[in-house]
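Dear colleagues,

As part of the handover before I leave the project, I'm documenting each prediction I ran so the next person doesn't have to rerun anything. This entry is a single chain, and its sequence is reproduced below.
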Amino acid sequence: MCKNLVNISIGLIIALSFTVSAKEPTEEDFNRWADNWDSLIPPGTYDFIPENVSFDLMFDPTFQKQLDEAGRVLNPSLEGQRIELAGFMVPIETQGQTVSQFLLVPEAGQCIHVPAPPMNQTLLVDASNQPTALRDLYQPIVVSGRLSVGEQTFELADSGYTLIDIRVEDLELDESLIPIAPEADGDR
């Protein structure tokens, strides 16, 4: 389910033209970012979801429990690998206009205006060795770094992964075209 939301978000972005710093990303870049988000979810994790989800099933407590449990499944084979993801910054530790820790989420508005994404789609980005500029919650960014697998709990969300040795770049996109999580209020 979250995989589909990520693919939809990345798919919307693929259709749009914008730049990462001075470089215009290619369709290959967007496909790589979508594949990298998908790789955080071990294969088969959401296989219990039927092709057509009924209204009744979506609100069935047993099904909701399965979804919650699936969202906590991490991919240990990614430990130590370098990865690059496009997403949105949710600041955790700031000092003035710099951020030393933030959550990276796949859609704007997650963690703040709507329930947090699943733990396997939320990354802690540790920029303590090289703080980065504070970005607006709706400013898309590209983050690359070395991945560590392990759960951490924050007031806003649980994270299943940590990125260290990071590089952060802005993704320039017209504000009206930024993908926003369903039910986010979009206040900027």
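Helices lie at 2-14, 27-39, 55-58, 61-70. The chain has one domain: 2-177.

All the best with the project,
I.
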